[in-house]
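Changelog excerpt

This revision adds worked examples to the README so contributors can see how folded entries look when concatenated. The first example is reproduced verbatim below.
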Amino acid sequence: MKILVIQTAFIGDVILATPVFHEIVRCKPEAQLDVLVRSGNEGLLENFPGISTIFTWDKKKGKYPTLLRLLKKIRAEKYDYVFNLQRFGATGLLTAFSGAKNKIGFDKNPFSAFYTQRVAHQIGEDRYIHETSRNLELILDFGANNTTKRYRDWE
């Protein structure tokens, strides 16, 4: 089984994604886990247990030509699962056209209509949930534990 997790935002977002990596490795230790991060964040995940390959996307130099090269690399890998932890169009495009059997991400992504599974991404007054918990919701079908506590209403 081959799995790709996409998180190309800033370093804090990659840190908040690490429980997803841990849970995938715990639930599917035989799987090949690859990640795609923003260029400059790859050092954070070097030697991370269970991660096979770290792809980077340099958004500052040729953002869109680089995006198309990444898409070709991703399609060549023939992933079984692609998990997109972001709501932005560029990563949605990568997910939607990845060629993966299972494309899972948040429903707020403009390309989510092409996903095989969409997870509600709710924020605001009626849903206080930490980002790590929201990310873990994407892999609950893998048997992942979503152990992060939900925020309480402070009023």
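The second example, added in the same revision:
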Amino acid sequence: LYLSDEALRGVVEREGIGWVHDRAVEVGRLAGSNHFRELAHLANHQKPRLETHDRVGNRIDHVTYHPAYHEVMDANFRTEVHSLPWTVDAPRPQTARNVLYYMWNQLENGTVGCPNGMTWAIVPLLRSDPEIGDRWLDKILSTQYDQRTLPAADTNGLSVAMAITEKQGGSDVRANTTRAIDTGDGCEYLLTGHKYFVSAPMGDILLLTAQTDQGVTLFICPRVLDNGELNNIRIQRLKDKLGNSSNATSEVELVDAVGHRIGEEGRGVAGFVKNMTH
């Protein structure tokens, strides 16, 4: 998908990012191969399946994907499309990342779109508040994709989900009603509410908005707590979509879920816009 694309190669030359050439050749080879086209087909036709409870009635809130989904995700992470701008000292790294992103999207959007894109986008936000962000930053920049359900400290790499939208507000985040109660333990809060549109709910950490006494605030919720227990992030159902089928999109209920405030109270909208839009 790279060597056969004269226009794309022209962009690399024109923008002065020849340093990405070898990476682009590798992504083009993978994303353009018969093997990965078959993986993309399988990942979209064998859709994610939600298991809310195990066989004896314990909540597990687990989304099962076809193995093809995980293989494509692994290749995404190995080729650094989620982390490249933050790990290289080279000209125009965001443009170089877009070259790789463009090719992966030609193959399959459900893997490289939301789960990969959110993992890439959260890095400036984490860096803006090192006291909280440094807990997860190294694992987010890892080139290893880890599908296991483990505490962040025990994984080889982290992926990110986003839980912003609520049914009563839609795109108006200020109308959100999810509440966050300060536990008095540093920046730790308990979050209770309902998120109507959560993409990639099996992400290791979720970026959420919730109301405090000061207004809309940003929080990071780990899916698995440090003690190995699942956080109280309950997946209610998966959405039935016209496309993007390989990626699970869900509704989620929070019941005293542990969240870590990132940024100032009441500045969640401003923090989101400043740090997560490029």
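Reviewer comment on example two: The two ends are 25 Å apart (CA to CA). The longest strand covers residues 249-261.
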